[in-house]
Design goal:
By secondary structure, the chain is mainly β. The strands form 8 sheets. Strands 19, 20, 21, 22, 23 and 24 form a 6-stranded mixed beta sheet that branches. Strands 1-2-35-34-33 form a 5-stranded antiparallel beta sheet, with no helix packed on it. Helix content is about 0%, strand content about 40%. The chain contains 1 helix and 35 strands. The longest helix is centred in the C-terminal third of the chain and has 4 residues. The N terminus is likely disordered.
Length: about 500
């Protein structure tokens, strides 16, 4: 998993020129599941029905190495440290649904790979065919959505994913059901969304490049409803407001001329249920960062502070070094759209996680968890060894599921590694995988991790560049070495060791 630098970006900054491309598909491979009855998608959705299927032969088949030393794919000998259950170069973990992980893989990120999390064994793979590359994957309710396109921009300046197609696959078999071009309806607009689709109640919610939101039947791609930009949201100087999906229900975020807005739509009809207008100057992080539990959605935003005088404002210890612009976490009632509480002074490197009535802000510097209903602090944990500076930090390495919070922490050994060295390497036990009860912060179990190193990149894995938690589905936790073999992932069974 490639680390990324946190940046607060207004939604309109993602409005880029879209170049839609045609896709040619061969007949379905032998042994694929039967085709559903043919449908006639509406012109508005431009969906290609499930009468054809994409090839799978061009995707790589990574070997899985169980019990061979950790991480086996890197060829390291971690004496005294139990190896992972399996390790394999399966690519970047993009989505998790039950015991199946869906990754982006291939030399140019042109494939989607389904992997059994218990064994690391590939289940199926899908090639993006004539599309440039896979930009994002969304999974749930028996389908997988692959967003394809290409990057726009040049580093170190901003680089945005320019998505021009969504393709829906059967999650069990990988067979293509339909594809739709994201051409939008405006002139000079583009779709720069990171994950422009969500799945709910048997439909796929899509944001088009002009701010339009559409609902498509998950099995056929037929248009169910279309929702134009809210009348209260006027274009700003950069053009049409961009829309971004924050939750699958769906809650949609807009950047308008006057302020940012969140709007909850009825998934069956597209009718708005409520709209929350953020205070002037507020912007949402892009890609959208939100977490839901107990009927409340927590969203990371950058703004001047408390959104309303009646909203309880919580202050936290800074989850990062002082001197950098913090962000806020605002909790929104999913039924009314009313802000419930705001958490201030959160480091820009933090992410938000939620499970079983708890909402947590977590960064490489520590974790703070709140009671989701009240915003009252439940517990906090500070990392004993923290990174020396914030710019350039990877996305926080944590995951929440089934009432547990999973994170990786550095031990004192990590602080002794010189990040500028080309000879020092992390040693076994430099990092530990922690599993906590999300309600109390109590450590349920820990697991020392193996040695990690930068390979041919001459990048030393230190406290500034830790391995990361890619996904967790209960007993299985997937860990990415960050600066090791490209696409390397390790599977740890936290129930049996």
């Amino acid at each position: 998993m490639t680390p990324r630098t946190r940046a607060t970006v207004t939604l309109t900054a993602a409005a880029l020129l879209t170049a839609a491309c045609a896709q040619v598909r061969p007949p379905p491979p032998a042994g694929s599941d039967p085709l559903p009855p043919a449908s006639q998608p509406t012109p508005a959705s431009s969906a290609t029905p499930a009468s054809q299927s994409s090839p799978v032969s061009s995707c790589p088949q990574p070997p899985v190495t169980p019990y061979q030393g950790a991480p086996a794919v890197l060829g390291l000998n971690a004496k005294g440290v139990p190896p992972p259950l399996w390790s394999s170069a399966i690519g970047d973990v993009a989505a998790l649904d039950g015991q199946t992980a869906f990754t982006i893989t291939g030399r140019t990120a042109e494939c989607v790979l389904a992997v059994n999390t218990a064994t690391g064994q590939p289940l199926w793979n899908w090639s993006a065919a004539r599309h440039p590359q896979v930009m994002a994957v969304t999974a749930g309710q028996g389908i997988v959505i692959a967003a394809t396109g290409h990057g726009h921009g040049t580093a170190p300046a901003a680089v945005y994913p320019l998505i021009d197609h969504l393709t829906v696959l059967n999650a069990a078999t990988g067979r293509q059901l339909w594809t739709v071009p994201l051409t939008g309806h405006g002139q000079g607009d583009g779709d720069g969304q990171w994950i422009p689709a969500a799945i709910t109640d048997g439909i796929v919610i899509v944001t088009e490049n002009d701010g339009t939101v559409e609902a498509l039947d998950a099995q056929t791609g037929t248009l169910v409803w279309k929702d134009d930009i809210p009348s209260t949201c006027h274009p700003n100087a950069q053009g049409s407001p961009a829309a971004s999906i924050f939750t699958a229900e769906p809650i949609i975020g807009y950047q308008c001329a006057h302020a940012s807005e969140l709007t909850a739509l009825n998934p069956a009809t597209g009718a708005p249920r409520w709209t929350w207008q953020a205070p002037s100057g507020w912007t949402f992080n892009l890609p959208p960062e939100s977490a839901q539990t107990a009927g409340i959605t927590a969203v990371i935003a950058s703004g001047p502070g408390q959104p309303a005088t009646s909203t309880p404002n919580r202050h936290t210890w800074l989850l990062g070094p002082r001197g950098y612009d913090p962000v806020q976490i605002v909790a929104i009632d999913d039924t009314t759209g009313r802000p419930v509480w705001v958490l201030d002074d959160v480091a820009a490197s933090a992410d938000v996680y939620a499970s079983d009535g708890q909402t947590c802000a977590a960064s490489p510097y520590g974790v703070e968890c709140l009671n989701t209903a009240t915003g009252a602090e439940a517990w906090q944990w500070r990392a004993a060894v923290a990174p020396s500076q914030e710019p350039g930090l990877p996305t926080n390495t944590a995951a929440a599921a089934n009432g547990r919070l999973y994170d990786i922490a550095a031990t004192p050994a990590a602080a002794r590694i010189n990040p500028e060295s080309t000879t020092q390497r992390s040693a076994p036990g430099t990092f530990i995988l922690q599993v906590r009860d999300i309600a109390t912060g109590h450590v349920i179990t820990t697991r020392p991790l193996s040695a990690y190193y930068g390979g041919g990149s001459s990048v030393v894995v230190s406290v500034d560049d830790p391995p990361g938690v890619a996904a967790a589905d209960g007993p299985m936790v997937l860990v990415t070495p960050e600066f090791g073999e490209p696409g390397a992932v390790e599977g740890f069974d936290m129930m049996t060791g």
